[in-house]
């Protein structure tokens, strides 16, 4: 039936090794290594222009690397046969406006030897009621759901989602997360990029932080937090704060000051000793967002 | 092939739902035929072995060229910048079914454009071929159109939306005039007349006319056909080259 490649013995479904990609004036990827193991969700995290979308376009065969190796299911993603068990939802979604949802699905399904039934695709993303609508009349959220439904058309083993929930409201986002979790529950693998750190926290087994074309951290969400070991300290203070130990980030909005520190205990002791009047002291563990901020900040200082 | 048909179907449905797009392109060759073709066809002496077919052929080729080359080139250049293009490119298929599907759908629209021209010609001019003669005639028109579709694909992938339109305009006009489709090439400067025997449009015209027995002395449809096959191979290669090189829209 389908000409499937043998599963690589190490269970890696997608791999980048020493990959470089340059566009006219900028080097989007400066030697990236990435392994996506079968099962689970890997989140590529990074600010705009970090190289996330470039990495994904290499893995889905849209572009070629200038240097290094790009593997998908152990093969070359530029070869269409390699992509038979790959589903991709690009960052921008758009369809021929005059075509109906059901017609778009039929066209995409025709590309696969063993596609999932159209009803199942419509059902999974709850867009059955849109089947007879022309795509030009869909809302942004409906379009995004159709784009994700299309990624499932070939009954994929690996799903690549490029910022799948950008522009979606909270309900739609959570609904999409549920779809991703269901897919992982049936042994699917997901590689996603996201701006929403909440999203990585909610879905990802592994986080890879990219900035300026290089990987600056990787590990579980907890491990990333551990790696930066920062704590958030919030307090209300009217006067200027003295120099405090271990501060890596300092933000002040009116009388509320937010500090990220590598040593909260020492910071609080120093604060008390300094005799500055303060109130409403809060010490909280960092969110991934803060951890991420610190990581990219450090990278900038280092370069 | 199933996939090519699926693409052809989508393409056709999409265009059919935009009458503002296809009506003018379908009506264009008919209008031109009414303005210029009828009188030219009626100047052909009644004693000639083949009548209005000669003039009619020129208009058919002109119309089909517009659809196969012009609209293809511009259409693809536009489409390439849409996110939908990226969705299609990551699907597990090579470029070929998409190309074939596009060519098929363009051929269908060419038929739509040809039918009214032929009907007008039948009503107003002296068309001598019988129905049996129409099969090789239209067959030759269609077969010869293929390299121009590939030329359009090449243009579409090699340029941006804004560049495609003027380039397609110039290419379309040059190929029509230089290829002796539009006005007799004898009316053009002599350097143009020297180029004419090398124009793919000229080979196409010679090929079709000789197939229906209306070729000039010395013409042979076999020779013109070989040229067309050569053009097809050439533009297939360029189309595949620009498609493979293409990584979506490029910015600096």
Would you mind describing this structure in some detail?
The complex is a heterodimer of chains A (303) and B (252). Chain A is an alpha/beta fold. Helices cover 30% and strands 30% of the residues of chain A. The longest helix of chain A has 16 residues, at 170-185. The termini of chain A are far apart. The model of chain A is unreliable at 1-8 (pLDDT under 50). Chain B is mainly alpha-helical and 252 residues long. In chain B, helix 2 (19-42) packs antiparallel against helix 3 and helix 6 packs antiparallel against helix 9 (200-211). The A-B interface holds A 23-25, 57, 60-64, 80-84, 86, 88, 90-96, 98-99, 103, 106-108, 110-112, 134, 147, 150, 154 and B 2-3, 6-7, 9-10, 13-14, 17-18, 82-84, 86-87, 89-94, 247-248, 250-252.
Describe the SSE topology.
The complex is a heterodimer of chains A (303) and B (252).
Chain A (H helix, E strand, L loop, with lengths): L11 E12 L2 E12 L2 E6 L6 H8 L7 E6 L13 E4 L11 H9 L8 H7 L15 H12 L6 E5 L7 H16 L3 E6 L2 H7 L2 E6 L2 E6 L1 H8 L2 E7 L9 E7 L2 E6 L2 H10 L4 E8 L2 H15 L1
Parallel strand pairs in A: 3-7, 3-8, 5-6, 6-7
Antiparallel strand pairs in A: 1-2, 1-4, 8-9, 10-12, 10-13, 11-12
Helix pairs in contact in A: 7-9
Chain B lengths: L1 H15 L2 H24 L10 H28 L2 H7 L6 H29 L6 H28 L2 H18 L11 H6 L4 H12 L9 H25 L7
What labels describe this entry?
heterodimer, A: 303 residues, alpha/beta, six-stranded mixed beta sheet, four-stranded antiparallel beta sheet, 13 strands, elongated, B: 252 residues, mainly alpha
